Amino acid sequence: LATLPKAANGNPIATIPLPSLNDSRLDSMKMPKLNPDGTRATDAQGDPIMVFLDGTADGSNGTVLPVGADGQVRGGLRVQTQDPTIPNSQTVSSQYSRVAKIGGTCTPTLTINRAKADATTGEKEQNRTTSARDIHFTLVSNMPIDSTTLELSDFLVGGSTALNARVTAITALPSGSTTVFDVVARADDSGDITLSLPADAVTGPGGLTNTAASTSTDGVVTYRNPLIVAPSPLRLIAGEASGEDYTISIDPMAPKEPIAPLTFTIGLDAIGQTYNLAVSPTSPSISVDETSTTVRVTVPALPDGSTIPPATVATITHTVDTTDQEYAGLRVPSLAADLYSTNPQIKIDKEVYTCPDTTTSADNNYDYITKSGNCTVIPSNSSLKDAEKVWFVFTVENTSPDTWPTSLSGIQVTDDTLTDGTTCGPKFSHPCVIGTLPSLARGETHGFVWERNPVAIHTTQEGGV
C-alpha cells in the first residue's frame, strides 16, 4: 500500500493499493479529487498516477509493475498537487509534483515463539520447562496467509532434542484469524522442543510465499517426562530371597494425574535373561487414584561353583499402555541392575590393649600399639586397675569376594557400648563414632584407636566405660 501525503485538514489524502502480479498497467488508477474543504470527494477522481520503477519503464507510458516475482516492492510513486478551489468543475492538477520512493515486501514474514499470555488472542502462557504433554507455540505472520497452505508436516523440529518431537495441532487465534496461530507440539521423552517453518511453506496475498524461513527470539521449551523409575542402578545379590525394590512413579510436579490406568510391560535384556532375573508383579500398574507402583527384582542362586563376572549389568526395560493421551506413547526409563555373586563384606575386630605408663608413643598410634611389642592385649573377662589407661583398638578389613567392586566407600565404624560421657554411648540416643573411611580397597585394612581411662563405679549407678 502507498499512503499519500496529508491534506490541509491533517488526514491522509488516500491509501492506494499497489497492483498485484496479475495487473499489467497502472493506467486505471487515478489521483483522488479533493473538496474545497480538503476532504476527499466521492464522486470523481483526478489525474492518473504516474509510476516509474528504477528505470525499467516500458517506454510507452512509464508504468510497470511495482511488485516483482520475488515479492519485493521497488520504484517510485509520483504525487502531484491539485487545485480544489475551482467550484463545480473537474479538479485541475498543478505543475508541482514529487516522486516518493517506495519499497517493502509483499511476502509473508513469519515468527514462531513460546506462547505468551495474550488476552486479545486468548493464548495462554507456556512455561519454559513443563511436564504437560501439549506444548504451545505462537506463529505470527506480518500479513494474512492462506491457512489451507499451513500444514502439520510443514513444521521442522530439527533443533529439538526431545524424543519424537512433532506438531499435533494448529488453531487460528482468535478463530478465523489469518495472521496468528496456536501451534501445539508433543514429544515422547525429556528434552528441548523448537519449531520452525522453511521458506515457501505458506502462501500470502497474490500467491506469494514466504521467501525466508521463520525466525524466533524465545523459541525453546523444555519437556520433562513425568514418568520416573528409581533407584537406578539396583544392586542385586544372587540367591538373596528379599531382592531389591524399585518404583515407577509420576513426577509430583506433573500438572495432570492419570485419568485412566497406566499398565506397564517389563522386559529383560540378554544378561537379565541369562541370570533369570525375576520381577514381581510382571505387569505393574498405576490406577487413577495412585501416583506410583513398586516392583521387586530377585536373582536366583547360582549353580555350585558358578560366579557372576565383575561389572555385570542387566537392563530392565518398560513400556506403558494407557488410553490417557497425556501418558500414551511416553518412553518409560530403563533400569540398570548391577549383579553380584555375593554381598560386600567388612570385618571389624575389637581388642583392648595396655601399654607401659611411661610411653606416649601409643597415643592414637595403631601401628605402635599392635606391632611394636610394647603393648599387651587384655584377654576377655580380665580385670583392670581402677583408672588404668587402656586403648580400644578397631581393625577394619574389606573381605569382599573378588566379584564385588574393588573398593567400598563411605564406611563408618560405631560402637554402642563405649561412651564419651557427654554425647554418645548406652545412656545417649546414639552410638559413638569411632572413625570414618572415605574408601577401603578389597583386602585392605585400617585401624582406629579409642583411648580411655575406665573408672570402677557401683553397679547400681549409671555410667561405665
Structure commentary:
The chain is mainly β and 465 residues long. A hairpin with a 7-residue loop joins strand 13 and strand 14. The longest helix has 6 residues. It is built from 2 helices and 31 strands. The radius of gyration is 42 Å and the shape is elongated. The N terminus and C terminus are likely disordered.
What order do the helices and strands come in, and which of them pair?
Blueprint: E1 2-3, E2 15-16, E3 30-34, E4 40-48, E5 51-52, E6 72-73, E7 76-83, E8 92-101, E9 104-105, E10 110-114, E11 129-130, E12 135-141, E13 166-172, E14 180-186, E15 191-194, E16 220-223, E17 227-230, E18 234-237, E19 244-250, E20 262-268, H1 270-274, E21 278-280, E22 285-286, E23 292-298, E24 312-321, E25 335-340, E26 346-354, H2 366-371, E27 376-377, E28 390-398, E29 407-415, E30 432-441, E31 445-452
Parallel strand pairs: 11-16, 18-25
Antiparallel strand pairs: 1-2, 3-4, 5-7, 6-9, 7-8, 10-12, 12-14, 13-14, 15-16, 17-19, 19-23, 20-22, 20-24, 21-23, 24-25, 26-27, 26-28, 28-31, 29-30
Rg of Cα set: 42 Å
Helix percentage:
under 10%
Number of strands: 31
Tally of contiguous helical segments? 2
* Beta-strand content: 35-45%
Q: In which order are the strands of the major sheet placed?
A: 18-25-24-20-22
Summarize the biggest pleated sheet: 5 strands, mixed
Q: Provide the structure class.
A: mainly beta
Give the N-terminus to C-terminus distance in angstroms. Answer: 99 Å
